[in-house]
Design goal:
The structure is a single chain. The protein has 69 residues and is α+β, with helices and mostly antiparallel strands. A two-stranded parallel ribbon has the order 1-2. It starts with 9 loop residues before the first strand and ends with a helix.
Length: 69
């Protein structure tokens, strides 16, 4: 629940994007969010990770400041 907007925000982290089957399931999940009126950049925050590119604490911190404060 966003503290000032009083709206539920969703944050999905997809961590195995190098796996083709996982990536397809990820896209299907994003489509389900949209079908339920939950859109990227509005109420949906998405982060990605793979074995070649891991998440960075500073990036997560920046997203929290941008979308959740």
């Amino acid at each position: 629940l966003h503290p000032t907007e009083r709206r539920v925000k969703y944050w999905e982290h997809f961590g195995m994007m190098e796996d083709r089957e996982y990536a397809v399931k990820t896209m299907n999940k994003i489509e389900k969010y949209e079908a339920n009126g939950i859109y990227l950049g509005e109420r949906l925050i998405i982060t990605f990770e793979s074995t070649n590119k891991s998440m960075n604490f500073n990036r997560v911190k920046g997203l929290v400041i941008r979308y959740l404060k």
